[in-house]
Amino acid sequence: MSGGVDSSVAAALLKKQGYQVIGVMLRLWSEPGKEDSNRCCTPDAIAQARRVASILDIPFYVIDAKDIFQNSVVQYFLDGYAQGNTPNPCLVCNRSIRWTFLLDHALALGAEYMATGHYVRKMTIDGEYRLLKAIDRSKDQSYILHVLDQQKLAHALFPVGDHEKTEIRVMAATLGLPVASRKDSQDLCFLAGDDYRAFIRRNAAGLAKSGPIQSRDGRVLGQHTGLPDYTIGQRSGLGFAARVPMYVLQKDIEKNALIVGEHAELGSQVLNAREANWISGAPPQNEFSGQIKIRYTAREVEGHVALTEPDKFQVRFNSPQRDITPGQAAVIYQEETLLGGGIIY
């Protein structure tokens, strides 16, 4: 439970279905002095979750996960920018914190299942667990759950995935839950509403070193404020004047240089991904076609997928894709079924 509407209604739905429900919330790491701003575990969020648990008449516990969250998720975030990537720490949080650390605690408490408020559906077909997109496509969160496997899915429940978000809010209001109208959160929880650039400067100041902005042929066009401040495909805020629009093409970590170019230079028809995970538990034996999503908010694009190593794959698109960004996930679907994914490099 997070103190939000989705996890609160998930608990209510399960209790209505006859499950014996226990509410659990993780206390995650926050920067010193910003504990009241971490959206997922502020004192107010904990109080809200506790109040919901009281209304639903279920036990409620808070588990301390500050150290493991800092050492795995926050450090992954900083290390990713140090390597010139644009990391998605939510992927690591789901893999290492929610679906390993928390699941292990739940099973140790004697629970059979762990349920979350994620908008995604789980089905069993021919004895195999499948992950499908949520009924409410506008809220679908399957992208960040490509890290799950058969062992974890055996214990997973996603009660809100079969409902529209508007239904969930109506259910919360009908139950008299105080979170019925609470706004959805968009930011990374540990940023505490702050800009990620400011967070990096406070916690890894050495990453924000200025350096040259260059064209592919080496012409210096200006100075950047630190490579973490930019992402592939970015156009605005580059800090120099040019006769035509210029875009970020690449980050050269060794030279601390930001490589930019015109729109025609942007994009690629090929991406490579590592740390591949397949929901079925086994990598595909043959090349196949599917729909690929290269960012959480990106639209899916048709592509041809081929395994290059046991934990790596390559995607070839029919046309160049401009936002292929190292550090983000490439997630593969066939229609509404999530097959798996990996980290772009």
Per-chain topology:
Blueprint lengths: L4 H12 L6 E5 L15 H14 L3 E5 L1 H17 L6 H20 L5 E2 L4 E6 L2 E6 L16 H4 L2 E2 L7 H10 L21 H8 L7 E4 L5 E5 L22 E6 L4 E5 L6 E11 L9 E6 L7 E9 L2 E10 L7 E6 L2 E8 L1
Parallel strand pairs: 1-2, 3-6, 7-10
Antiparallel strand pairs: 4-5, 5-16, 7-8, 9-10, 11-14, 11-16, 12-13, 12-15, 13-14, 15-16
Helix pairs in contact: 1-2, 1-6, 3-4
Structure description:
The chain has seven helices and 16 strands. By secondary structure, the chain is an alpha+beta fold. A six-stranded antiparallel beta barrel has the order 11-14-13-12-15-16. A four-stranded mixed beta sheet has the order 8-7-10-9, with no helix packed on it. The protein has a two-stranded parallel sheet with strand order 1-2. The chain has three domains: 187 residues, Rossmann fold (3-Layer(aba) Sandwich), CATH 3.40.50; 57 residues, SH3 type barrels, CATH 2.30.30; 77 residues, Beta Barrel (Elongation Factor Tu (Ef-tu), domain 3). It is globular.
| Separation, N- and C-terminal Cα atoms | 34 Å
Q: Write the H/E string, N to C.
A: HEHEHHEEEHEHHEEEEEEEEEE
Question: Unreliable stretches, pLDDT < 50, 5 or more residues?
Answer: none
Strand order of the largest sheet: 11-14-13-12-15-16
How many domains would you count in the coordinates?
3
Estimated structural class = alpha+beta
Supply the key terms:
25% helix, Rossmann fold, Elongation Factor Tu (Ef-tu), domain 3, 3 domains, 345 residues, globular, SH3 type barrels, 6-stranded antiparallel β-barrel, alpha+beta
